[in-house]
Each structure stands twice: as structure tokens, then as C-alpha cells.
Write a structure and sequence with these properties.
The protein has about 325 residues and is an alpha/beta fold. It contains 7 helices and 14 strands.
């Protein structure tokens, strides 16, 4: 049994990419309902979590674009947040520092306890959690809770093995954090089934936080984790750099279906098949994601493994005080 600190402050963010509309409309709806939700929490016999609702990139939302100057969800590395700064910086660089002040500072004791950043993908990925740690028991238990509560929704946990300093997305500002990525949905469009899956997922996440903070014990178990191995670009003309092929019809929409060596990967515009030349079977995801054409990514590949997660509960006040004293002693040293 692992005792973990309470999660008194939770942030739910939408519109980090201004044309991924499920999160935009869900956060707007939650902002309308926030007073009623907080009143309901106060009536329950538990310490309510403070839910911060954030529309992350207002200018991009206004224009229904992914970003204005640069991708906001790549602006949260330690170097970007703490490097040289001027008033002439791109809008998203300025906004990343505002969000770091609101939700962070990143890596500090003052950072919010949990960040859930809402995203859509054009790829056929179902509902995915994307995180930087495969041993963040809070995020993995929340994911497992959603799996139990939403059995008809395809769900995977994606792990990007990146250090805290190099982690680049908004969810990295919290002590715990993940992106909730749901698709397929075209950018600039909201589909009711995708919106509803996101809304239900966020509600189950907040319900889990309330249960955890109230002292519930969550038993251990197993979670299948997909760890990103590499990206694959489209075939390109060596001179113009224009793409010369599209995702092969046999692969399109088959996210998380095992890709074996010599399986069809691309179909050139002249009709030829380009096959996967890897040395091991891997799981493709973000297949033909619209927003990744500019990044030179046709799809990404992951390796799946099963992780054992321990039973957890919230720390007692005595345990929390002991941890805080230990942290203070480390700072003095």
C-alpha cells in the first residue's frame, strides 16, 4: 500500500490547440456549471478539490486554429519557460509563461496537484491518456478507473519517455498530469459522440479524485502501457521535400493494431506499396494525424508492456506533515 499526498487542486484545460473543439466546448460548459458543482461538493462529507478550469490558448480559439505563432503544446520545457524573454516573443511563448505562473511553477511545491489537458486527434485512437511517466500511480489509477467505468470506449495509456526538464506539454506543469486525447474528430469540428466521451471521462476523473481525497483505498493491478519508440515520416521527394505517398489503405484507421515487418505502410501516388522495414512488430498510433504533416510525422510506433501498479490511498495528516518536514530538511541541506 502506497500512501500519496492529497490532490486539493486539479486543473482541467481545453483549447491548448484552438481548433480541437471538444475540449474548448467542454471547458466552456464546465465554467458555466462550476458554481453548481462546487456547491454540490461542499454538501458532501469530504474535503472538495478545487477545480481550475482553463481555456489555454484564447487567440488560437478565436481564429479556430491550432496555434497563432507556434505550437503552445511544445512550449513548456524548462529551457523555454526559463530562458531569455522579450515582449516581441511569439504569442504562445508569452502564454506558456502565463500558464506556468497560473498552474506551476513547473517542478515546484506550489504547482497544481493534477493537470488534465484535453485534446482531439484526427486519428482513430479512441480515448488515450498521454503521460511522461510509467510509474505515476495517480495517473495510472485514474486511467484504470476510466477503463472500468467506460468499458465500451477503446482506451490506451501512452507513455512518452521524456525527462521532466524536457517534457514539453501543458500537462507537465502539474505535480501529476496527462493529456486526454480522443478521436477521431476533424479539427475545427465537434462531434457529439467524441464530446460526450470526453465529458464522461473528465467526470469520472474528477469523481476518482474526490474518492481518493476522501480516503478510499484503490487496489493494485495491471495496466498495459504503450511506450513511444519512434516516429515515421512520409516518403518525400529528395529535392522538393513534398510527400510522395499516403498511408496505405490497409493501415489507415488501424491505430494500436500490431504492425509487422513487411506489412504495407504507404501507397505512393504512382500506386506502389511501401512496406514497413522495422525489425520488430510495433503498435502504430497517430496514424495520418492532420496536425503532424507540418512536423514530418506520418505515424508513431510504440512498444506495449504490462505494468504492475500498487494499491494506493491518501496520506494521513501525520504522514503528510512528516513528508513536508523531510522536504524542508532537504532544502536546508
Amino acid at each position: 500500500m502506497v500512501p500519496l499526498p492529497r490532490l486539493p487542486r486539479v486543473a482541467v484545460c481545453g483549447g491548448t490547440h484552438g481548433n480541437e473543439l471538444s475540449g474548448v466546448y467542454l471547458v466552456r460548459e464546465l465554467l458555466k456549471l462550476q458554481r453548481e458543482v462546487m456547491k454540490k461538493e461542499q454538501e458532501e462529507d469530504s474535503k472538495p478539490a478545487l477545480v481550475l478550469l482553463v481555456l489555454s490558448n484564447p487567440r488560437a480559439m478565436q481564429h479556430c486554429r491550432r496555434y497563432v505563432d507556434t505550437d503552445l503544446n511544445r512550449c513548456f520545457t524548462h529551457a523555454t519557460l526559463n530562458g531569455p524573454f522579450s515582449d516581441m516573443a511569439p504569442y504562445e511563448i508569452i502564454r506558456s509563461r502565463e500558464l506556468n505562473a497560473l498552474l506551476g511553477p513547473k517542478g515546484s511545491p506550489e504547482a497544481v496537484d493534477l493537470v488534465c489537458d484535453l485534446h482531439n486527434t484526427t486519428a482513430n485512437m479512441g480515448l488515450c491518456f498521454i503521460g511522461y511517466s510509467d510509474c505515476d500511480w495517480i495517473c495510472l489509477h485514474i486511467f484504470r478507473h476510466l477503463q472500468r467505468e467506460m468499458p465500451d470506449t477503446p482506451m490506451r495509456f501512452l507513455h512518452f519517455d521524456v525527462s521532466n526538464k524536457e517534457s514539453y506539454s501543458l500537462d507537465s506543469l502539474g505535480k501529476h498530469g496527462f493529456a486526454m486525447e480522443i478521436g477521431p474528430q476533424p479539427h475545427g469540428v465537434v462531434r457529439s459522440n467524441i464530446y460526450t466521451a470526453m465529458k464522461v471521462g473528465v467526470q469520472h476523473m474528477l469523481d476518482w479524485v474526490r474518492l481518493f481525497n476522501s480516503g478510499n483505498v484503490f487496489e493494485g493491478g495491471f495496466v498495459d502501457v504503450f511506450t513511444m519508440v519512434k516516429h515515421i515520416d512520409y516518403p518525400r521527394d529528395s529535392e522538393t521535400r513534398n510527400i510522395t505517398a499516403a498511408i496505405h489503405p490497409c493501415l489507415q484507421d488501424r491505430d494500436f493494431c500490431l504492425l509487422h515487418p513487411e506489412d504495407p505502410l504507404f501507397q505512393t501516388f504512382s500506386g506502389e506499396t511501401v512496406r514497413y522495414k522495422g525489425t520488430e512488430p510495433l503498435y502504430p498510433f497517430f496514424i495520418n494525424e492532420c496536425a503532424y504533416y507540418e512536423k514530418g510525422i506520418a505515424l508513431s510506433l510504440a512498444r506495449k508492456r504490462r505494468i504492475t501498479i500498487p494499491a494506493i490511498r491518501v496520506q494521513t495528516e501525520q504522514e503528510q506533515q512528516a513528508n513536508e518536514q523531510g522536504f524542508a530538511s532537504e532544502e536546508e541541506e
